[in-house]
Design goal:
By secondary structure, the chain is an alpha/beta fold. The protein has a single domain, classed as 3-Layer(aba) Sandwich (Rossmann fold). Helices cover about 35% and strands about 20% of the residues. It has an eight-stranded mixed β-sheet, with helices on both faces. It has a two-stranded antiparallel sheet with strand order 7-8. α4 crosses α5 and α8 runs antiparallel to α9. The longest helix is centred in the C-terminal third of the chain and has 18 residues.
Amino acid sequence: MKKFTIKNMLAVVLMGGMITMGIGAGTADAATKNANPYGLVYQNAIVKNERGKVNIKPVEYKVEGIKVAANLYLPADYDEKSDKTYPAVTVAHPNGGCKEQVAGLYAQKLAELGYIAIAADARYQGASGGEPRLRDYPSNRIEDISGMADYLVKLPKVDKSRIGSLGICGGGGYTLAAAQTDKRIKAVATLSMFNSGRVRRNGFLDADIKGIPARLQKAAEARNKELNGEIVYEGFLPPNSTDEQLRAKMAELPENTLYRDGIEYYGLTHRHPNATGSYTTESFIKLMAFDTEDRMDLINQPLLMIAGEKADTLYMTNDAFKKAKGTNNKELYLIEGASHIRTYWVPEYVDKAVKKLGEFFKKNL
């Protein structure tokens, strides 16, 4: 693995990446300390399936021949023997995340509202298959969302005319891209949308456009190294760090910012062994040619974009929303006081987002 210094770590932060293939033993591992049988690390997660309550069902299926690991959330009144069918929603996780974190939280909340919801690990990530590990190709992530829709379509209890999609952070950008062409998605929503291609290309806040040639050259060199079995990674979490070191790093960064809150969420409070926060440097070759804004006019479905009013990533939601000219049924909803990652777990912000999502999907599915 590539050795990272503070200097090159800060350079990667500017480009919006993450650098961790595992935090040291001293770091809080929520998945280990929390004895949740499903590995869920969010508040009030399901610990056992009970009749009359939302149930969870781990499932596996294949997309393009590669195994996908997913959790299916079933509403409290779900009954295989009844004639009732249910609307359903796909939930795509953030870059560097996994289905047991915020994607699972929102899938569970949607199931509480009466939807069959599926949260899947992207291929090459989490518990899903694919080599090399942590490859992050936009085409793969987009197909993963259509793959979730494929799985739902095959379920007898799903109303195929009422399938929606929710994407969170990077999963939001990829969900927008999926909805542009996959019209089985009848309503599309995003939370704290992150346009991965734009950030990898231009740097965070478009602050490193001059660095594009250097990043592309770096990606080319990484691809050559992969030919010899050496995988190079990007990221923003310092590897092999203790809790104290992570808190010290947080203290160096401004409050309510993506990278500070990201260290807190992924490194401390909601740590999961399958959420490494990293991606292969070679992925830049594909990422930098992608931009979810390019074809936003193809979205003709109802559209809801939710973001924190204080999020430093808000510019991405605003710009994509403006370009969604193919639908008149669209809404931009800002959560007062919320930053990007705090929409993932702070109860006040989650409740507001879920309420809005409930209204949106009820109206449009």
